Structures are given as C-alpha cells and as structure tokens.
C-alpha cells in the first residue's frame, strides 16, 4: 500500500509507515506519478481535491484531510470516484478556543472593560464552538449559542435567534462555509446585518472568511471615515479581530488596517492541533483497513519547555486577585497574539498573500502541555475551566 501525505503533517511518516510505504509531497507540488501510484492520499487545506486531481489518482481509495474544514474537497467528485473520504474534524478546536481567549484578554485590557457580565455570541456550536463556550463561561460572560442546523438535529439543543447574536457585546464566528440550502452562511454578515451593529461590539472571525461580506464591511468603514471628516453623525462598524479572510490566500490589506487584531489564519495552528489532525487520520485509516491502531499522539509530542516567567505568573494567579492582567500574562507565555498581529502587518505591507506566513508558522503549544500546581481553589477551578492541566 502506497500512502502519499502532505509534508507539513507532523509525525505523519512515523504514524503511517507502520501501515504502508509512505511518501511526502510539498503543498502545491503534487506529482502526477506520485498521484497515480497512491492508494491513500492525505492532504491539508492547500491541496484542492477535485475531478482534475482524481483523474490522476485512479487508485486512491482513502482520501483524508488533516484539517477540520473540507472546503477544499469536492465531496461529490470523491464519492463518484469510489473513494472513502474523511477529515480531522475537531483537531484544532482547542487551539482556536485559546486564540479567542487571547483576543478577549487583549481587548479587555486595552479597552479597560470587564469581561464578566458581557455577552458573547458563538455562531456555530460544533467542537470549536463548544470549546469557546467553555472558555467564555469560565470568564463569567453570558453565552448566546447560535446553530439552527444543530437545533433541528438535537432536541436537547436550543439555538438563539440571529437578532440575539447581533446584539451581543462579542460575536465569535465558528460556523462552516455553506453556500446554499436552508441555512447558508456565506455573507451572513452582510450590509443589512452590519448596519445593525455598532462600534461598541466586537466581531471575531476564526472560522471561514466568507461568513463576512468584505466589501460591505469596507463600505461601513469608508462611510465612517467620511462622516467623521464631515462632522456629521458617524456611521459605525464593529471592532474586528480577523484571522480568517475572504478570498484567501489573497486578502484585503485595506480591511487589515481597520482591524484591532489581524492574523494569517493561524488560530488553529498549535503543534497539538496539527499533530492531532495526523493522529485522527491514522485512527480513521486503521479503522478503514480493519487494523489495530497501536500508535498514540502522546508518544510523539515533545516535552514542553516552560518559559522562565510562567511559574511567576502562575504564583501571582494563585493569590486572591485573579485579575485579567495576570491571566493574560499566563496566556502570553503560551501564545502572544500581539506578536502574531505585528508580524502579520509587517509581512502584509509587502504582499497580499498569507500563504508564506502559514507555511512557516513557528511551533506553538496548547495550555495543557504543562501541568501547574495551585493552592487557591478558585484559581484551580478557573484555570482548569480555561483548559490548563491543573494539579
């Protein structure tokens, strides 16, 4: 059995060499001969699996993506090809939730607002949305859950109305891109919706950039600038945290200038998140082939090298204050969102392409990569709820 996998999938050779003959390929450089010989094709989002590719991969019977999203898969074409397809849904949920937490803390500290008591609408309550809801709840925020398709499938789940969503203080997007049907999500934040929002609200884009109509959003910012210059009442637009952009990998650099935080679609790019994608595909391929899955992700992840200042911040958090500032210091030891924002703006000053940043993104670890020991029961409960491994 010949297994062809994307070279950026961590530990892929170690996982899949126990099953068959492995060969890696560079994203965007997929040879015809390699495709023709592949029984198993494992990709990431940079490889579009469509009719044209499948014509070259005539022997492929198992096609998987080590990502949560499948917008790069022509599912109908794959099924007509007679191949089994799968994804690594949920693999980066923890990393995305930690990105949202870093965003919330940054905004709270810089705008001098208390998060407790503020409302946060979560659009799309799959694995990522559930993880974000857990974090939002741990911060003492009120949660607005919006997912009509899930409400139709699950009698125990009730979706909020969209009016409740667009009246929330914070709105965090975690829905898939759906172009048609009963509940389309493409441009769900269009001119009509954006017109109902204001500058005291925060919109976090961490799922698919096409959920927001970029042109409509830019029109709001342009109108805001024009009204400010004329001295008349300002037309307002929400505060933006943008990780996912419309028309990637080419993005609107004009929109970037209006963002409070801007990053290169890397919210889910933790080492654990990427490696978990590999591990999930390994488990699913083993199931498909009816062989034992004897390997586990924890066998490969390196020991976390704890920053020197992390324990000092942990000790401060173990005191009575439990301030957002101290929590932010802890989070920044794992993920400094301001660094990503700064690097992104420097790069995009010379280009409108985000691919190089994503391809060369440095290793980032998730919160539970290290165990922390606390005495304060309130601190233990809060850090545990935020995803830390607490002893």
TrEMBL record:
<feature type="binding site">
    <location>
        <position position="45"/>
    </location>
    <ligand>
        <name>substrate</name>
    </ligand>
</feature>
<keyword id="KW-0520">NAD</keyword>
<dbReference type="InterPro" id="IPR020921">
    <property type="entry name" value="Erythronate-4-P_DHase"/>
</dbReference>
<dbReference type="Pfam" id="PF02826">
    <property type="entry name" value="2-Hacid_dh_C"/>
</dbReference>
<feature type="binding site">
    <location>
        <position position="243"/>
    </location>
    <ligand>
        <name>NAD(+)</name>
    </ligand>
</feature>
<feature type="active site" description="Proton donor">
    <location>
        <position position="265"/>
    </location>
</feature>
<comment type="function">
    <text>Catalyzes the oxidation of erythronate-4-phosphate to 3-hydroxy-2-oxo-4-phosphonooxybutanoate.</text>
</comment>
<feature type="binding site">
    <location>
        <position position="268"/>
    </location>
    <ligand>
        <name>NAD(+)</name>
    </ligand>
</feature>
<feature type="domain" description="Erythronate-4-phosphate dehydrogenase dimerisation">
    <location>
        <begin position="324"/>
        <end position="387"/>
    </location>
</feature>
<protein>
    <recommendedName>
        <fullName>Erythronate-4-phosphate dehydrogenase</fullName>
        <ecNumber>1.1.1.290</ecNumber>
    </recommendedName>
</protein>
<dbReference type="InterPro" id="IPR024531">
    <property type="entry name" value="Erythronate-4-P_DHase_dimer"/>
</dbReference>
<feature type="active site">
    <location>
        <position position="248"/>
    </location>
</feature>
<keyword id="KW-0963">Cytoplasm</keyword>
<feature type="binding site">
    <location>
        <position position="67"/>
    </location>
    <ligand>
        <name>substrate</name>
    </ligand>
</feature>
<keyword id="KW-0560">Oxidoreductase</keyword>
<comment type="pathway">
    <text>Cofactor biosynthesis; pyridoxine 5'-phosphate biosynthesis; pyridoxine 5'-phosphate from D-erythrose 4-phosphate: step 2/5.</text>
</comment>
<dbReference type="InterPro" id="IPR006139">
    <property type="entry name" value="D-isomer_2_OHA_DH_cat_dom"/>
</dbReference>
<dbReference type="Pfam" id="PF11890">
    <property type="entry name" value="DUF3410"/>
</dbReference>
<feature type="active site">
    <location>
        <position position="208"/>
    </location>
</feature>
<keyword id="KW-0664">Pyridoxine biosynthesis</keyword>
<dbReference type="InterPro" id="IPR006140">
    <property type="entry name" value="D-isomer_DH_NAD-bd"/>
</dbReference>
<dbReference type="Pfam" id="PF00389">
    <property type="entry name" value="2-Hacid_dh"/>
</dbReference>
<dbReference type="InterPro" id="IPR038251">
    <property type="entry name" value="PdxB_dimer_sf"/>
</dbReference>
<comment type="subunit">
    <text>Homodimer.</text>
</comment>
<feature type="domain" description="D-isomer specific 2-hydroxyacid dehydrogenase catalytic">
    <location>
        <begin position="5"/>
        <end position="290"/>
    </location>
</feature>
<dbReference type="GO" id="GO:0005737">
    <property type="term" value="C:cytoplasm"/>
</dbReference>
<feature type="domain" description="D-isomer specific 2-hydroxyacid dehydrogenase NAD-binding">
    <location>
        <begin position="113"/>
        <end position="267"/>
    </location>
</feature>
<dbReference type="GO" id="GO:0033711">
    <property type="term" value="F:4-phosphoerythronate dehydrogenase activity"/>
</dbReference>
<comment type="similarity">
    <text>Belongs to the D-isomer specific 2-hydroxyacid dehydrogenase family. PdxB subfamily.</text>
</comment>
<feature type="binding site">
    <location>
        <position position="147"/>
    </location>
    <ligand>
        <name>NAD(+)</name>
    </ligand>
</feature>
<dbReference type="GO" id="GO:0046983">
    <property type="term" value="F:protein dimerization activity"/>
</dbReference>
<feature type="binding site">
    <location>
        <begin position="206"/>
        <end position="208"/>
    </location>
    <ligand>
        <name>NAD(+)</name>
    </ligand>
</feature>
<dbReference type="GO" id="GO:0008615">
    <property type="term" value="P:pyridoxine biosynthetic process"/>
</dbReference>
<dbReference type="GO" id="GO:0051287">
    <property type="term" value="F:NAD binding"/>
</dbReference>
<dbReference type="InterPro" id="IPR036291">
    <property type="entry name" value="NAD(P)-bd_dom_sf"/>
</dbReference>
